[in-house]
Design a protein that fits this description.
Layout: H1 11-28, E1 34-38, E2 41-45, H2 47-50, E3 71-72, E4 76-77, E5 82-83, E6 88-100, E7 110-121, E8 127-128, E9 132-137, E10 146-147, E11 158-159, E12 164-172, E13 182-187, E14 192-197
Parallel strand pairs: 3-14, 4-14
Antiparallel strand pairs: 1-2, 5-6, 6-7, 7-12, 8-11, 9-13, 10-12, 13-14
Length: about 200
């Protein structure tokens, strides 16, 4: 009696099945992506998309604070009121000469320019006059030496809304120098620099 031999799959079918297995392995081991499986669900994560962008701007980052005196206003003459951007105004009301005595080391007694100023708070908030600075320079650009002997009186205290205050600055006049100066006035409450030619 003859026995029937089991049939074998054709060689073509075996080759096709092997090629499919190799393609599946290559897809699973691709270096360009990371594959994770949770239960029966599978997701593909792109590492480039997951990495933070170093050039992106953080909307929660604090803004950079303004720097005092970053904008210089056009020069104004004596008796002309100048206004800082936040509302504080300043005016040089008079410029006179006087003999002033030195009171601190480094100061020199002698002729000086006496500059009187008036500040008015036209802003919506109180202004700290302790944050006001007035520097003077000569026509050649060199700084003028300040004196703190009488009648010097620095601006000080809180200037309430709508109120005015006065101050007096004194600058030494060296022998043979011009009787003209340029004042640079700044306030911690503003980014402006007011220029007054005296």
């Amino acid at each position: 009696m003859s026995r029937t031999q089991p049939s074998r799959p054709p060689a073509r079918r075996l080759l096709a099945a092997g090629a499919l297995c190799l393609a599946a392995l290559a897809a699973c081991s691709s270096p360009g992506s990371t594959r994770t499986e949770l239960g029966s669900a599978a997701t593909t994560v792109d590492p480039a998309a997951a990495a933070p962008d170093p050039t992106a701007t953080d909307p929660e980052a604090p803004a950079t604070a303004d720097v005092v005196g970053t904008r210089t206003l056009a020069p104004v003459p004596v008796q002309r009121e100048a206004r800082f951007s936040e509302g504080l105004t300043v005016k040089v009301t008079s410029v006179t000469e006087a003999e002033v005595a030195a009171v601190h080391p480094g100061e020199v007694s002698g002729p000086a320019m006496v500059v009187a100023l008036t500040f008015t708070n036209a802003s919506p908030d109180p202004v700290d006059l302790d944050g006001v600075r007035v520097n003077a320079s000569r026509p050649d650009g060199t700084p003028a030496s300040g004196l703190e002997g009488p009648p010097y009186a620095a601006p000080t205290g809180i200037l309430e809304v709508g109120e005015s205050g006065t101050a007096t600055f004194v600058y030494s006049i060296a022998e043979g120098t011009a009787r003209t100066m340029t004042l640079e006035i700044t306030s911690v409450s503003s980014t402006d620099t007011v220029i007054v030619d005296v």
